[in-house]
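Dear support,

I submitted the protein below through the web form. The confirmation email said the job was done, but the results page showed an empty box. After a refresh the structure appeared. I'm attaching both so you can tell me whether what I see now is the final result or a partial one.
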Amino acid sequence: MGYTAKFRVWRGDGQDGDLQDYAVEVNEGEVVLDIIHRIQATQAPDLAVRWNCKAGKCGSCSAEVNGRPRLMCMTRMSTFEETDVITVTPMRTFPVIRDLVTDVSYNYTKARMVPAFAPPADLAPGEYRMAQIDVERSQEFRKCIECFLCNNTCHAVRDHEENKSTFSGPRFLMRIAELDMHPLDTVDRRQVAVDDHGLGYCNITKCCTEVCPEHIHITDNALIPLKERVADRRYDPLFSIASLFRKEKTGTRGRQPAPATPGSSVKRADHSK
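What the results page shows now:
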């Protein structure tokens, strides 16, 4: 059975805008994106909205519904009371292009900064072998549809525009964690996570996990393990001692002896006694 709902939708661009009121028909089984399309078709033909699959798999229709980052196509109208006023606004973290469409190019800039998967050079395609637990770990992270709701809700950039230059957000820290924990990846990404992607800005509030439409355990399975791996490396006393030895070998505490040349006599210690 249908009813008339009250919607407030953000209209404007990056310079100016306001919430506009709409009274629109709602039918059983519909989602917020259906209502936005009805407003577009009957009352506001110039309303800008980004969408594609309407099945929760493309990540295009990200917005904020009553202040909560959501996919509009996965937000059922049945979750609201008929008397509720439903407010739809663009993602707050990213610049508004027009109406509900935002400029998410920040995310693609950060994606290009993540070093690519680097398998061992002596392994040919088809020779990769992994334990099932490692396969399942990567499969969870690979469910990401890049809706960027996690980056939108993360307060480190949502409330601090100045951090965008040094913080990549949970989406790409999760990607770094996936690769760093991959048993066949040969790149040590721990220092990169700190220096280039701002891992230290994350204080594991789990807000990114709460808004993920794919129910990926971003905090527990990616961010916390990555922080632990960084801490293990940074505060491991054996690693610190090894670093000192490496500094000595590079000449900071004296020169290294010249390597022996063919034919030269090198005195070796006699350990037989």
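Response: this is the final, complete result; the empty box was a page-load delay. Residues 105-235 form a domain with the Fumarate Reductase Iron-sulfur Protein; Chain B, domain 2 fold (CATH 1.10.1060.10).
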